[in-house]
Here is the input.
Amino acid sequence: MSSKIIYFALVLILFAQIGISRRTSDSSQESEESKTEVNVKIAIKNNLNDNDSSSESDSEELKLEEEVQIEIFNRLFSDLIDFANLTVEDTKVLLTQTLIDITKTTEKSEEVDKHFKVFSDFLEKAEQSKTITSPYKQKRYLIELASSIPSMFIRYDTKTTNKFTVEEALIHLALLKNGFTVYEDNYYNRLKVCMEKIEEKVQLHISKHSNEDKQKVEFREWYEKFNNEKDADAKYQIVLEFFK
Here is the structure.
């Protein structure tokens, strides 16, 4: 999806240029626009790279690109960031209390440990997010972590299964005791509202920018896929595709 990133970065630069005085000569405008184009290309030349750069110039390019991607997130996906933060925090509370109950009421066994590990792994990943120093990477990490939550609970939910093992039944009861029904309702209500807000922002963005270049066409294709999907969880996954 790098072409989408390029498209939005160019749009952001265009907004910044609107306030520039038009009294300069045509040749000066062309020169400034040329400089702007070069700077944009430098800033978004490569996708974010996890490997440390040995070159100072490469490091500066990555820093500029990260700033561009954070700006895109803030413009169109700030609601998803808020949703992910709140959802991860609520999930941590639910899982912590559930694990305490399971430890107190269930005999230790290999099967119980397998289920226990799924929850404890999530809690560990949630804590790891605090060690990520890049704001953009931290937001992406939390958004992706929150997207994994439905699959973590699916085997304990009577809406998706009508047959539990003994261990799954015990965990199902522990989850219910600690407020899983309210938690699940809150999750899907928030997700639905979040997807609606993103849809509104993207629609507004499209209405304001009519240039039919390659990036615009690709962006419209992504939006049509997002707009046509009605399932909130599936829409969430489509949003994640945008930055891949």
